[in-house]
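Hi support team,

I'm opening this ticket because the web form for multi-chain structure prediction keeps timing out on my end. I have pasted the exact lines I submitted so you can reproduce it. The total is 604 residues across two entries, so I didn't expect it to be a heavy job. Is there a limit I'm missing, or should I split the entries? Thanks in advance, R.K.
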Amino acid sequence: MIPLFSSVTIIGLGLIGSSIARAIRLHMPDVRLSGYDASATVRARAAELSLVDDVAERAGTAVRGSELVILCVPIGAMASVADSFKTDLAANAIVSDVGSSKASVAAILREALPGVHIVPAHPVAGTENSGPDAGFSSLFQGRWCILTPPEGTDSDIVDKMSQFWRGLGANVEIMAAEHHDLVLAVTSHLPHLIAYTIVGTAADMEQVTRGEVIKFSAGGFRDFTRIAASDPTMWRDIFLSNRDAVLEMLQRFTEDLTALQRAIRWGDGTKLFDLFSRTRSIRRSIIEQGQDDAAADFGRRH
Amino acid sequence: MIPLFSSVTIIGLGLIGSSIARAIRLHMPDVRLSGYDASATVRARAAELSLVDDVAERAGTAVRGSELVILCVPIGAMASVADSFKTDLAANAIVSDVGSSKASVAAILREALPGVHIVPAHPVAGTENSGPDAGFSSLFQGRWCILTPPEGTDSDIVDKMSQFWRGLGANVEIMAAEHHDLVLAVTSHLPHLIAYTIVGTAADMEQVTRGEVIKFSAGGFRDFTRIAASDPTMWRDIFLSNRDAVLEMLQRFTEDLTALQRAIRWGDGTKLFDLFSRTRSIRRSIIEQGQDDAAADFGRRH
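Hello R.K., no limit was hit. The queue was backed up. Here is the completed structure from your submission:
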């Protein structure tokens, strides 16, 4: 097979960036990899781990001569990082990203890099851990990667990016950025916001409960703390950049929660039971579609 | 070591009941085990699995001669099941349960079984799966079991129950039923209610998003579906029996969520970032205290 790209640059070497680097090493060993991170500590660690062939001291140096540049930075940093390397980009280089909201990122990149081929992407995969040591090569295996190419993007370029992500083990889906933002507001952004909130609420209760919230977290709370341990900068930027869809979903959620609250207050067991039965079937669908594991407690040690 | 109990009866052979049976077989092989379940299907399956030495056709038959009877049934079924075996209980038998709310269960059992030694218990452990096949002997290993003996309970009996649960691998904590109900409202009941709600909200969105909520669930949503797949009857009864503490926690949660909603609407990134940073440290405490696993994504297959 002719390699898709002979050279790839990864800007931002955290959980996602370093996982892409590791997956490229594994699946596309001939690719020349360069990388950059705004943090000197991360750059040093990336060099120690040999995540890429060259860790550059400037983003501009890292992208020079690269056929594909992937931005793995928080959404709020996209504009300035794109600006910092735009004069160094090779002719016909493709620029992509891994941001969790897409319409605003597409607008940012279009404005910062006029005339450049831009194919925004969102690999729907991750863990609560951050940094270059947290990544692993199988992170994208069997997970979805959503591409949101702007209208008018050359179909060859979209095909190439699809093949690239399939090569890293992902399934690829193509959709409009606005639709992506609505779907992800439901499946990812709202759940994260709720998890952050409830962990905060519980933390405030710790004064009353003397450390017992943490001690007895296995009752359900610990699953929320996992989600609420995700990178704060990344998530701040997601909520600010996908504001409208998140607020819309939040409104629906609050209405539903208020209805349940009323059912509890009035002792309406049937209403509770009906909802609780319905949600079980959703879980079954997710396991059937291979998006999660049915193993009890996910192999947590017992 | 002198065995704590020579005979134990388990009423209700679902996830928790069958796990207790399996753990007793493993750690206390000399105990004579009997069991009962209201469902004939479950009784047949329990016999096939040899979960207990004798599966009885009536609760009364199962408890006869037993030194310890553990009720592993939904809270709403406690009163009638206790009533059904009360004339068969051996003198000096201890009756315990595994219900997730304790003040109301204590009142129910006290009323149904006057003069009987009652030591309500709550093993804070479980999975989203139900039924006799879902149990496993290590479910309680390293988890907490909270005992809420009513004031005036003989301390020898409390000690015996503590030793029993330690023998099954659990850590034991003793507290007042009312305090238990408050702590668990935060660490377990509210998280479950939130998870049920968000999965319901997302299910309603499926019409808009054509199956995509399930497809892209790996972004955070799938963790909620796991919790929201828990047994509907059990959870209906928990919310109805711990109503006041749940409503109080729900009110706090809603206030906090509204504040975040406002921060998103007004673009207050600092407020979001501050909360998201604070919640990370809670996660760290949980892992340090051994109540969860730091493994990325809990050994889900990649």
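A quick check on our side: Chain B is about 50% helix and 10% strand. Let us know if the file doesn't open in your viewer.
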